[in-house]
Design brief:
Helix content is about 70%, strand content about 0%. By secondary structure, it is mainly alpha-helical. It has one domain. About 40% of the residues are buried.
C-alpha cells in the first residue's frame, strides 16, 4: 500500500498546532497571534478526515475482517493511551491556580482547558474513558463526560464509534461517502428536534461524520470527491458558519499536494509536508496530541506557584517549556510503547492479509489500495 508522505507530515503539523493552541491562552502574546492559534478544534476535524481515509484503506487491506482490524486499532491506541490517561488522572487533582495568574481573564479559553478536581461520578467517567464510550453519553446524563480527566481523548471515542460502524457499513457500501453524509444529517436533525438535555457533545459520531465522509471520498475519483466536498462544506456552513470551512479546505489543499506535488503553487507545500522534521513529528503525533494537555497543566501550576502574578516571567519560561517537555515525553512514549506495539500490529496485519487472500482467491483478484 502506497505511503502518503504528505499526509504523514500533515499529521505532525496538526499535533503541534493542537499543542500550541493549548499553550497559547496561558501566555501573554499579541491578540492577533492568539486568534491565529485558537483553532485547535479545526485541527482535530482534519484528523477525522485523515482517519476516514486511513481506516477505509486499512479495512480494505484486512479484507473487512473484524478481528485483525480491531486488534490493529487496539495496538495503535491503547499502549500510549493507558499510561497517559493515568498521568491525566493524577494531574486532575491539582488546583488550576488561576488566582496566581491574574492575566488569564475569566472569559479566557484557558479556563476551559484546565479543570479542577475529579468529577462527582468519577467511576463512570473512568469506565467510559477506558471503553472509549464517553462520546455516547448525552450532556444531560453526565455533563462534560466527553472531556473528563483527559480532554484530548474525546476524539478517541469518536474514532471508535467510526471503527465499529465502518465494520458494518463498508463491507456493503465500500468507499461510498453517502452513508456518512446521511449520518451527519441525522446528527444535525437530532440537535434541531430534541431537548437540550438529550444533545450529545461533539464527540458523538454523527456530529463529525461529514469529516469521515470526506476522508473516505479521498480514495475515489475527482468527481466523487468534489461532490462530497460540496456536501461537507454545506454541512459545515450550517453547523458553524465560515469557521467550520477551514478543515475541509485545508485537507483538500494537502491532498492535492500529495497527489499533484508538481502542480504550480503546490510544490512548496509538498516539500514542507515531506520534510524530515514533518515526518518525524508525524511519527510522534498521537502521543503528542494526548500528552500535551496534562503535562502543560502540571508545568503551568508549578510555574504559577513559583512566579505568582508575574505574567512576563511566566511567559518567558512557559512557552519553551510547554513546547519542549511534551515533545520529549511524546518521543519517549513513541520509542518505548508505540514502536513495539506497531511492530506487533504489522506482523499481525501481514498474517491477516495472507489469510484473507487465501479465502478470497488468487492474489491478482485482491485489491489493497
Amino acid at each position: 500500500m502506497k505511503r502518503l508522505e504528505c499526509l504523514d507530515g500533515l499529521r505532525g503539523g496538526l499535533a503541534v498546532y493542537v499543542m500550541v493552541s493549548h499553550m497559547a491562552p496561558f501566555a501573554v502574546i499579541p491578540s492577533w497571534l492568539a486568534r491565529l492559534l485558537s483553532h485547535g478544534g479545526a485541527a482535530v476535524d482534519v484528523f477525522f478526515i485523515l482517519s476516514g481515509l486511513v481506516i477505509a484503506r486499512s479495512l480494505e487491506r484486512f479484507g473487512y475482517r473484524a478481528r485483525p482490524f480491531l486488534m490493529a486499532r487496539i495496538l495503535r491506541i491503547y499502549p500510549a493511551f493507558l499510561p497517559i490517561f493515568a498521568v491525566a488522572m493524577a494531574v486532575q487533582c491539582l488546583p488550576s491556580g488561576f488566582e496566581r495568574m491574574p492575566w488569564v481573564a475569566g472569559d479566557s479559553p484557558a479556563r476551559a482547558i484546565w479543570s479542577d478536581g475529579w468529577p462527582d461520578q468519577w467511576r463512570a467517567y473512568v469506565l467510559t474513558h477506558l471503553t472509549m464510550t464517553h462520546g455516547l453519553v448525552p450532556n444531560g446524563v453526565m455533563p462534560d463526560a466527553w472531556v473528563g480527566f483527559l480532554g484530548a481523548a474525546w476524539s478517541l471515542s469518536t474514532e471508535w464509534q467510526f471503527y465499529l460502524l465502518a465494520l458494518v457499513v463498508m463491507p456493503r457500501r465500500g468507499g461510498s461517502p453517502a452513508p456518512w453524509l446521511g449520518l451527519a444529517l441525522l446528527g444535525w436533525g437530532w440537535d434541531a428536534w430534541t431537548p437540550a438535555a438529550w444533545h450529545f457533545s461533539r464527540a458523538f459520531l454523527p456530529n463529525k461524520a461529514a469529516y469521515f465522509a470526506l476522508g473516505i471520498a479521498s480514495m475515489g475519483g475527482c468527481g466523487r470527491y468534489c461532490l462530497t466536498l460540496l456536501a461537507v462544506l454545506g454541512l459545515c456552513w450550517g453547523q458553524g458558519g465560515t469557521e467550520k470551512l477551514a478543515a475541509p479546505l485545508v485537507w483538500t489543499l494537502c491532498l492535492a499536494a500529495q497527489h499533484r506535488p508538481n502542480r504550480p503553487g503546490l510544490g512548496w507545500l509538498a516539500a514542507l509536508l515531506r520534510a524530515p522534521a514533518a515526518q518525524w513529528l508525524g511519527g510522534l503525533s498521537y502521543g503528542l496530541y494526548l500528552i500535551n494537555e496534562p503535562v502543560q497543566k502540571g508545568l503551568g501550576v508549578l510555574l504559577a506557584w513559583w512566579l505568582p502574578g508575574d505574567a512576563l516571567l511566566f511567559t518567558v519560561f512557559w512557552i519553551p517549556a510547554a513546547t519542549v517537555l511534551p515533545l520529549g515525553l511524546a518521543l519517549i512514549v513513541h520509542i518505548l510503547l508505540e514502536r513495539p506495539a506497531m511492530r506487533w500490529s504489522r506482523a499481525e496485519g501481514r498474517s491477516g492479509i495472507v489469510v484473507s487472500r487465501l479465502c478470497r482467491g488468487p492474489p491478482d483478484r485482491y485489491r489493497i489500495g
